[in-house]
Design brief:
Structural class: alpha/beta
Order of helices and strands: EEEEHHEHHHHEHEHH
Helix content: 25-40%
Shape: globular
Number of helices: 9
């Protein structure tokens, strides 16, 4: 894998003025971002998140998932901390791409859950590749992280790349009537740790 740094600039947001770092994966042609705040290369654990692109949730306010709410909550948390990093990874639809995600949504409209829909299209339940994070974090000087996630797979991935995960910070937000089944599936089939509030929704589906 060849992930190279391209450029960095300021990014003013409603939460803080972040520094935006652009990276190119030369093997796939995909462009990834890191948003940083404060000094993050001193070896102390950094509050951070690995956020896979979700155009429908992040930009179009979809309530079919919790992605947009998680993105906003993570940026707010980093701003409150005054120090942190968010990697924005171009892995739409858990790695299947935007148009295939729409096809998966069509199957979900017909009754499939999010995992069944991916599998009916011939994909794995989760095709994301977190190896792209290692060179990005190495460039930024991050060696230890307080990872905002409900997904144990992200913790294992980072630890497998030699990064120290000092703690897992739950990111439980964005539940609504439209994503109730989606959250239940993430807990039951993908092993996400969704906490007591989400667990109550999961139990309703059992």
């Amino acid at each position: 894998m060849s992930v190279v740094f391209v450029a960095a600039s300021q990014l003013p947001t409603p939460f803080a003025v972040f520094t935006m770092h652009g990276f190119l994966d030369e093997d796939t042609g995909k462009e990834h971002l890191a948003l940083t705040l404060g000094e993050i290369n001193d070896g102390a654990p950094v509050l951070g998140r690995l956020h896979s692109e979700c155009l429908t949730g992040d930009a179009l306010f979809s309530q079919r998932c919790d992605c947009g709410s998680q993105l906003e909550a993570a940026l707010r948390a980093i701003a409150a901390e005054g120090r942190g990093v968010l990697l924005y990874l171009r892995q739409e639809g858990r790695g299947i791409g935007l148009l295939n995600k729409i096809r998966a949504y069509e199957l979900q409209d017909g009754g499939a859950d999010t995992v069944e829909a991916n599998e009916q299209l011939g994909f794995g339940a989760d095709q994301r590749d977190y190896s792209i994070c290692q060179p990005m974090l190495a460039h930024l000087g991050v060696s230890a992280i307080k990872l905002m996630t409900n997904n144990p797979r992200k913790v294992k991935a980072l630890e497998g790349f030699g990064l120290r995960v000092a703690s897992r910070v739950p990111l439980q937000t964005g539940q609504n009537l439209h994503n109730k089944k989606y959250l239940a599936t993430k807990a039951n089939k993908l092993g996400h740790l969704l906490g007591s509030l989400h667990q109550a929704e999961v139990e309703d589906e059992l």
